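Structural prep section.
Before we set up the soaks we want a predicted structure of the protein with guanosine-5'-diphosphate-alpha-D-mannose in place, mainly to decide which crystallisation condition to try first. Input record follows.
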Amino acid sequence: MKTALITGITGQDGSFLAEFLLSKGYEVHGTIRRSSVDFRERIAHFEGTPNFHLHYADLGDSMSIIQVLNKVRPTEIYNLAAQSHVQVSFDSPEFTADVDATGVLRILEGVRQCGLAQTCRIYQASTSELYGKVEEVPQNENTPFHPYSPYAVAKLYGYWIVKEYREAYNMYCCSGILFNHESERRGETFVTRKITLAAARIAQDKQDKLFLGNMDSLRDWGYAKDYVECMWLILQQEKPEDFVIATGVQHSVREFTELAFRYAGIELEFKGKGMDEKGYDKATGRCLVEVSEDFYRPTDVVNLWGDPSKARTKLGWNPNTTSFEELVKIMVEHDMAKVAVERESERVRTNLAAYLEKGIVK
Ligand code: NAP
Ligand code: GDD
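Run finished without errors. Recording the tokens verbatim:
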């Protein structure tokens, strides 16, 4: 039985990857961080699964990493843990560098010091943010990097240190340069999930308006569930290599917003330009989308578009299993149901409070 260690198992990708590896018969170990509140919603369904184990470790703490490596002695490591929010990296640049850059070094060096260098394969969660202020479109494995945020600069160190350990110590370690991938489990402050949740709430009268930043920004959005398969495929190749993973299809934030609202039953019409742009409900004329300066970044990456040819040819991976339209639909349907459940439990709570007040329920 193969043994995988996933750092960042509580995140969007970690939870899908754990499901995928368990279905392949792996023993899956994941690292979690201590928190005063329990935010393990994405992995709660694994509770009691025989081949599933959790350990405390933090990418900022070498000792915790070495302890887990010695205990688990994995055959594959998927290093997904990161401060993954680009805008947050402008507010917490030092923390981001420690986890997203030095954290990768801690994993690689830990593997060496635990005597696993020749038996353990390592996947590093790299990113299309490396292309940043893009120098060509679409971007492939040979496109020059120009990182454009503290997050991207930290991830660039991660990319190069992986390459260095591969060349210096002959270790099997690779970077997957993944373009944006989303899902119904996406964190609620990333733009796609922020939009699908807002569309669902506005459609069910739980929110008045959605405020966004740069709606002209272009992304190559895929479905996270399809992308975790690539992480695994990258570690099953004969030789360690880096791969771009993307759909090869590009859309703007505005297009994502229009489609999400359409699936929630609202046709939007955009009027105005830049900061004055607004999205109106065609049926009622109500303004539902506005632009806010708060969501603009000091430097923003605005033209990501991946070329997945190498992954298609060498990994045999189909980049178009889930289309853009299907992805938006999956997310909106999920959030419409989530909001409906929240509304219903709120209604029950309100009714109960009223009954208690009137003395109907003792
Ligand atoms: P995510 O949902 O934000 O999950 C990040 C995970 O990292 C969480 O489990 C988080 O744990 C953990 N983490 C954060 N800081 C840590 C620390 N100091 N020590 C240990 N664990 C820590 O991110 P994701 O979307 O699943 O992305 C997974 C990885 O792929 C990240 O490295 C991200 O940068 C990279 N990536 C993502 C995309 C994308 O579009 N999703 C594209 C390219 C690359 P808590 O739950 O405790 O916070
Ligand atoms: N978050 C957010 N919120 N972004 C907005 C908003 C808003 O209200 N309005 C416009 N945007 C724009 C951002 O300026 C950016 O250009 C784009 O929408 C996407 O933003 P995010 O969804 O936050 O993702 P990201 O592309 O910055 O980063 C994600 O993808 C990277 C891969 O390219 C993260 O998952 C990173 O971890 C990942 O590496």
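Observations: The pocket of NAP (ligand 1) is lined by residues 7-8, 10-14, 31, 33, 39, 58-60, 80-84, 99, 125, 127, 178, 180-181, 187 (CB under 6 Å).
Flagged for discussion at group meeting.
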